[in-house]
Design goal:
Elements (H helix, E strand, L loop, with lengths): L1 E2 L2 E5 L6 E9 L6 E7 L2 E3 L6 E2 L4 E9 L5 E11 L4 E12 L3 E4 L3 E3 L2 E10 L8 E6 L2 E3 L3 E4 L3 E10 L3 E9 L2 E20 L8 E8 L6 E6 L2 E4 L2 E4 L3 E8 L8 E8 L6 E7 L5 E2 L6 E2 L4 E2 L4 E3 L1 E2 L3 E3 L5 E5 L2 E3 L5 E3 L8 H46 L10 H8 L2 H5 L5 H12 L1
Parallel strand pairs: 2-9, 11-18
Antiparallel strand pairs: 1-3, 3-7, 4-5, 4-8, 6-7, 8-9, 10-12, 12-16, 13-14, 13-17, 15-16, 17-18, 18-19, 19-23, 20-21, 20-24, 22-23, 24-25, 26-28, 27-30, 29-32, 31-34, 32-33
C-alpha cells in the first residue's frame, strides 16, 4: 500500500519535497526488490527497506517537485525474486501553483478600470481561505469569485487615479501569503487655464499627464488647427505641457485640446473651452459653421451648412446660458432640396455630356478612316484592271492610253506609287 494515497501540494519553491512510503509483505527468506516510478520514470528510494513487523516492510522515497505542475502518478513496485511475482500500488500527487495574480493590463488610462484576477489553491478542501484585496495598502472588496475543486478565482475591478500597487493577501492554516502587481496609470489627469481669459490679457493652458513613461509626443489643437506646445517638462511620475496665449483677442476663443502620444499604448487627449467668464465656446460642426467661435451669455447661434448639406430641423441653433450651451448640437446632413440642382448633380451631368461628345468624335473619325481606305482601295483596283486588261484592237490605240500617259496614276489618285511599277504600266500600255 502506497501512502498517502493522494496528496495535494502547493508549490512554494522548486526544491520542495514530498515524502512517500510503501508498505508490503516480506519474509526474511524471500528477496523483495522495490522500485519507485513517477510517470514511468524510475526514482531512487531514500533508504533501504526496513521491517515494521514480522512480515511487513516499508520503503520511502522523496519526490522533488522541481518544475512539476498538475497531477503525477507515484507507483511503488515490488518484485519477489524466485517467484516471478510483481505487485504494485499507485498514488497521485497534485501539484498546485501558489497564489498568483494576473492583470488584463498593467498600463491603464487615468480614471479607467483595472481588472485583476487572483488564483488561490484550495487543496481539494472546498473551504474558502481567508483572503482580501488592498490598493496601496487600503482594503477593498472583490466584485465576484468562482471556484472548482482545485482553485478559487477572485475578480477585482478598480478605478485607477494614480500608479498603484494591488495586493492579494491569503491566510491559510496560519500561513500568510501575499502577491502584488503594479499598475501604471497614464493619461491626462487635468487640463486647466491659469490666468484670466479677457481681451488684452495672457493665460497659460496647463496639461498634466500621469505616468512614469514619458509621452513620445505632446501637441495641441486650437479647434482643428494643430500647434506645438510652448514648453513641456517631465518628472518621474508625470509630464506637464503648457500652451501660452499672449495678448488674447476674440480670435483666440474656442476649444483647445491637449494630445499625448505613446509608443506602446493608445493616444490620449482632453479638450477645454477657452472663453470669457459666462461665455460659451461653440463646437465644430462638420460641413457647417456658426460664423463665430463663441457666444456671450444669453446669445443664440444658428448653424449654416455648406452646399449639398442641410441642418436637421430638430437641431439648428444653440443658446448660451451661464457658460453652458443649451440645445442639441447642430448636425449638417447631406440633402438635395426639392426643385434645386445640387453641385454634385451638376458635376454628374457635365461628365455625361463630355463622355457623349468624346464618343461622337471617335465615331466620326472611325467612319472617315473607313471611307478613305475604301476610296484608296478602289483606285488601286482600277489601276490593276488597266494593267491586266488588253486593248480590243492591238493596232488601234486605246483611247485611255494617251490619258493615262499624260495623267500618271500618282497624280490622279493622290497616292505615291513606286517608280518601277509606274514604268511597267507605261511600257505595257505601249506594248
Amino acid at each position: 500500500t502506497t501512502s498517502p494515497e493522494g496528496v495535494a501540494v502547493v508549490r512554494q519553491t522548486q526544491d520542495q519535497v514530498v515524502e512517500m512510503s510503501c508498505e508490503f509483505y516480506d519474509y526474511p527468506e524471500v528477496e523483495a526488490l522495490v522500485t519507485w516510478f513517477t510517470d514511468d520514470l524510475e526514482l531512487e528510494e531514500d533508504e533501504m527497506t526496513v521491517y515494521v513487523g514480522d512480515t511487513t516492510a516499508r520503503s520511502t522515497v522523496s519526490v522533488v517537485l522541481g518544475m512539476m505542475s498538475g497531477n503525477f502518478q507515484i507507483r511503488c513496485s515490488v518484485e519477489y525474486a524466485g517467484y516471478g511475482t510483481i505487485v504494485s500500488d499507485t498514488a497521485v500527487i497534485s501539484v498546485l501553483e501558489s497564489v498568483s495574480l494576473s492583470a488584463v493590463s498593467t498600463k491603464v488610462g487615468y480614471n479607467e478600470i483595472v481588472e485583476i484576477f487572483g488564483t488561490i489553491p484550495l487543496l481539494g478542501s472546498h473551504i474558502y481561505h481567508n483572503y482580501h484585496w488592498s490598493v496601496n495598502g487600503v482594503s477593498v472588496l472583490e466584485q465576484d469569485h468562482t471556484h472548482n475543486d482545485t482553485y478559487l478565482t477572485s475578480h477585482l475591478r478598480w478605478p485607477i487615479l494614480q500608479s498603484s500597487t494591488i495586493t492579494l493577501t491569503v491566510m491559510n492554516s496560519g500561513r500568510l501569503t501575499r502577491k502584488s502587481v503594479s499598475v501604471e496609470a497614464y493619461g491626462i489627469r487635468s487640463l486647466e487655464v491659469e490666468g484670466r481669459v479677457e481681451p488684452g490679457t495672457s493665460a497659460d493652458l496647463v496639461c498634466v499627464i500621469d505616468g512614469s513613461t514619458q509621452p513620445s509626443d505632446v501637441y495641441w489643437y486650437y479647434n482643428t488647427e494643430r500647434h506645438a506646445a510652448t514648453y513641456t517638462t517631465h518628472t518621474p511620475t508625470e509630464t506637464r505641457s503648457v500652451f501660452s496665449l499672449q495678448n488674447i483677442t476674440p480670435d483666440n476663443y474656442g476649444h483647445y485640446t491637449c494630445v499625448a502620444g505613446f509608443p506602446d499604448r493608445p493616444t490620449v487627449f482632453k479638450r477645454i473651452p477657452v472663453v470669457p467668464l459666462g461665455a460659451c465656446a461653440l463646437p465644430q460642426v462638420p460641413h457647417g459653421s456658426f460664423g463665430t467661435n463663441y457666444l456671450n451669455d444669453g446669445a443664440r447661434a444658428t448653424v449654416t451648412c455648406s452646399a449639398s448639406y442641410a441642418p436637421l430641423e430638430t437641431s439648428k441653433s444653440v443658446l448660451c446660458e451661464g457658460g453652458r450651451l443649451v440645445g442639441d448640437t447642430p448636425v449638417c446632413v447631406r440633402a438635395a432640396r426639392e426643385g434645386a440642382v445640387v453641385e454634385d448633380d451638376v458635376k454628374v451631368v457635365m461628365l455625361i455630356l463630355v463622355t457623349c461628345v468624346l464618343i461622337v468624335v471617335m465615331c466620326a473619325l472611325l467612319i472617315s478612316l473607313v471611307l478613305w481606305n475604301k476610296k484608296r482601295f478602289k483606285i488601286r483596283r482600277n489601276a490593276l484592271n488597266k494593267l491586266y486588261t488588253p486593248s480590243q484592237n492591238p493596232d488601234e490605240e486605246d483611247p485611255k492610253t494617251k490619258e493615262d500617259l499624260e495623267n500618271p496614276i500618282e497624280s490622279r489618285s493622290g497616292n505615291s506609287y513606286d517608280f518601277d511599277i509606274e514604268q511597267k504600266i507605261t511600257w505595257t500600255r505601249h506594248k
